[in-house]
Amino acid sequence: MSTLHVRSVPDELYQYIQSLAQKSNRSLTAQVISMLNQAAEEEKRREKQKQTLYAIKNRRFQVAEDAPTSLELLRDDRSR
Question: Does 39 reside within a domain?
Answer without folding.
Answer: yes
